[in-house]
Amino acid sequence: MDISIVRSVIEMQARSEHLRLGGHRIALVPTMGALHAGHLALVHEARKHADVVVVSVFVNPTQFNPTEDLARYPRRLDADIRRLEEAGGVDGVFAPSVEEMYPFGTADAAVATWVEVAGLDTHLCGKRRPGHFRGVTTVVAKLFHACRPHAAVFGLKDAQQFVIIRRMAADLLMGIDVIGLPTVREPDGLALSSRNEYLTAEERGQAVVLSKAVFAAVDAVRGGELDPEAIVERMRSTIAEAPLARIQYAEVVDAYTLQPLSALARGSEVLIATAAYFGETRLIDSAFTRVS
Ligand code: AMP
User: Fold this and answer.
1) Exposed e or buried b per residue across 229-250, where buried means at least 16 C-beta atoms within 10 angstroms of its C-beta
2) Distance (Å) from CA 191 to ligand 1 centroid
3) Which end of the chain offers a freer environment for a tag, N or C, measured as fewer CB atoms within 10 Å?
4) Measured between alpha carbons, how far is residue 99 from residues 8, 20, 104 in Å?
5) Which H or E element spans position 288?
6) pLDDT digit string (tens) for 64-93?
7) What pLDDT score does 21 carry?
8) For residues 76 and 34, is the Cβ–Cβ distance under 8 A?
9) For residue 185, which atom of ligand 1 is closest to its CA?
10) What is the mean pLDDT of residues 214-227?
11) Which pLDDT score, from 0 to 100, does residue 67 have?
12) Quick one: which atom of ligand 1 is closest to the CA of 32?
């Protein structure tokens, strides 16, 4: 299947407008490229919600803070396009340059208009990656304006990102269905991630503790455990089985406000989330679950 590649914002907007006038429904799958089976699952989901599927590939500088891995983030657009062609189900790839997306530059002082979702970005990853979610919400708002989708599909692997974007779309009356897809995993449980390729074989072997910790926490919640500290302790001891893991956080928070909880309320929905470093590579894992 031939995929059209669009690099300019104006052209993308014109094509989307044309499709909309023709009665088509557009779904957008935003990515930073280095595509894996998790991204393809998002495409598959997107097709259920629209007859035109656009994948954006853009490594967004404003969501990396100066200490992070922007320069070494994998970029391989040609291979990504081939992968999407083989998989099928994609009509267009929007792959703008940095200049196209940020005509005035990407430095803090150069970006006058930020989209910020207050409150939700001060917990979990947001607390440890200052400015990250402001960069994410700003670029996703821009991608929405460029691609004009009716629906957009995100992975629940980036759980906090999903919660924040869903809230942004609702608060700004964007009229876009924000859809979340459960995490796609390796057979041993490790969540697929473009960053997994940074891991040494030894780190890769041990990285499975993150998913084990999340699954153990989900089991505890489903088994009736209502004490967040007991759940977190279980996660921490599972992650401690890996000598190479340097845990950054393990938390159980409210699934909508992301606020820490002192006790779990039966019937409520919670988010279990953790982040840890293996060498220089920071990995995250999480799961939403209902308290029984
Ligand atoms: P990224 O290219 O890493 O920015 O991710 C682009 C989209 O793919 C985001 O919505 C991610 O949450 C989603 N994603 C990444 N990894 C996975 C995965 N293992 N399962 C499901 N979705 C994923």
Assistant:
1) eebbebbeebbeebebbebbbb
2) 9
3) N
4) 10, 27, 8
5) strand 281-290
6) 998 888 999 999 999 999 999 999 999 999
7) 98
8) yes
9) 19
10) 97
11) 86
12) 2
What length is written for the chain? 292
Q: At residue 123, what is the residue type?
A: H
Nearest Cα neighbor of 13 from 75, 81, 77, 92 is 92
**Whether the predicted pLDDT of 2 surpasses 90:** no
C-alpha 32 – ligand 1 centre gap (Å): 9
The reply to whether the predicted model has a pTM over 0.90 is yes
pLDDT at 4 over 90: yes
Return the DSSP state at 179: E
Nearest atom in ligand 1 to 39's CA: 8
42 C-alpha to ligand 1 centroid (Å)? 8
pLDDT over 90, % of the chain = 97
d(CA 12, CA 73): 25
User: Which of the residues are catalytic?
Assistant: 39
Residue 182 Cα to ligand 1 midpoint, Å, equals: 10
Residues 54 and 27 sit within 8 Å (Cβ to Cβ): yes
Short-list 160, 99, 169, CA closest to 129: 160
Neighbours of 264 (CB within 10 A): 21
Q: Ligand 1: residues within 6 Å at CB? A: 31-32, 38-39, 41-42, 154-155, 157-158, 181, 183-184, 191-194
User: Which one-letter amino acid corresponds to residue 129?
Assistant: R
Mean of pLDDT over the chain: 97
Q: CA-to-CA distance for 27 and 289, rounded, in angstroms?
A: 26
Q: Which of 154, 179, 271, 283 to mutate to test the pocket of ligand 1 (most atoms within 8 A of CB)?
A: 154
Closest CA to 289 of 257, 259, 252, 262: 252
Per-residue pLDDT averaged across 115-141, rounded? 96
